Amino acid sequence: MAYPMQLGFQDATSPIMEELLHFHDHTLMIVFLISSLVLYIISLMLTTKLTHTSTMDAQEVETVWTILPAIILILIALPSLRILYMMDEINNPSLTVKTMGHQWYWSYEYTDYEDLSFDSYMIPTSELKPGELRLLEVDNRVVLPMEMTIRVLVSSEDVLHSWAVPSLGLKTDAIPGRLNQTTLMSTRPGLYYGQCSEICGSNHSFMPIVLELVPLKFFEKWSASML
């Protein structure tokens, strides 16, 4: 999860988020190099009186500064398209969870089980226990098995919401009358926090998301206790 004064992303927990972090670093390096070059040229033009008479009307220079940006854009676009297609891929999910957004809480339904559904409300600050996080803890966590492909169906009962968990690289809009889907897979166990990322009314800030990723045997025990 995020911590105070954090400048970068949260630690990646899924393969998709790892790819997104690599792409971010790749693009940031290109932007840094371009900015450094432009700043160097501007400072050079301001500090020296020497000019090359052929530079202002040279076909070779114009060719270079036309082709070079096109190559840079291709170097950015190709990895971006690859990750977009990877995010849309769904390969034989082991479990399906239906997520419904409400004003202002989330409800979850494990569609592979007959009667496994619950609502998830934020715990008020006055009821928090020592060590729990303000505005992030919920009364019912979403327990899921780790290292398994899980399909999440996202929709809404009233207004626009957005189901987002940054450390897993997830952000899917919850739209009334429409069913969106995304996939997640965690490479390690733990608690992963998210929040609604679409302004949905006065209590938009008070509908957090908590995923608890556990080994399969613990998930089976939890699901049996909930039925």
TrEMBL record:
Q: What is the lineage of its organism?
A: Eukaryota, Metazoa, Chordata, Craniata, Vertebrata
Question: What family is it from?
Answer: Belongs to the cytochrome c oxidase subunit 2 family.
What role does it play?
Answer: Component of the cytochrome c oxidase, the last enzyme in the mitochondrial electron transport chain which drives oxidative phosphorylation. The respiratory chain contains 3 multisubunit complexes succinate dehydrogenase (complex II, CII), ubiquinol-cytochrome c oxidoreductase (cytochrome b-c1 complex, complex III, CIII) and cytochrome c oxidase (complex IV, CIV), that cooperate to transfer electrons derived from NADH and succinate to molecular oxygen, creating an electrochemical gradient over the inner membrane that drives transmembrane transport and the ATP synthase.
Lineage top rank: taxon: Eukaryota
Keywords of the record: Copper, Electron transport, Magnesium, Membrane, Metal-binding, Mitochondrion, Mitochondrion inner membrane, Respiratory chain, Translocase, Transmembrane, Transmembrane helix, Transport
Give every Cytochrome oxidase subunit II transmembrane region profile domain span: 1-91
A Pfam family for this UniProt protein?
COX2
- Residue ranges constituting the Cytochrome oxidase subunit II copper A binding domain according to the UniProt record: 92-225
**Membrane topology listed for this record:** Multi-pass membrane protein
Cofactor binding notes: Binds a copper A center.
Please list every transmembrane segment annotated in the UniProt record, as residue ranges: 27-46, 66-85
Name of the protein: Cytochrome c oxidase subunit 2
* Catalysis: reaction(s): 4 Fe(II)-[cytochrome c] + O2 + 8 H(+)(in) = 4 Fe(III)-[cytochrome c] + 2 H2O + 4 H(+)(out)
Q: Which GO terms describe its biological process?
A: ATP synthesis coupled electron transport
Q: Needs which cofactor?
A: Cu cation
Return the GO cellular component terms, semicolon-separated: mitochondrial inner membrane
Q: Which gene encodes it?
A: COX2
> Where does the protein end up?
Mitochondrion inner membrane
Which one of the record's GO molecular function terms can you name? copper ion binding
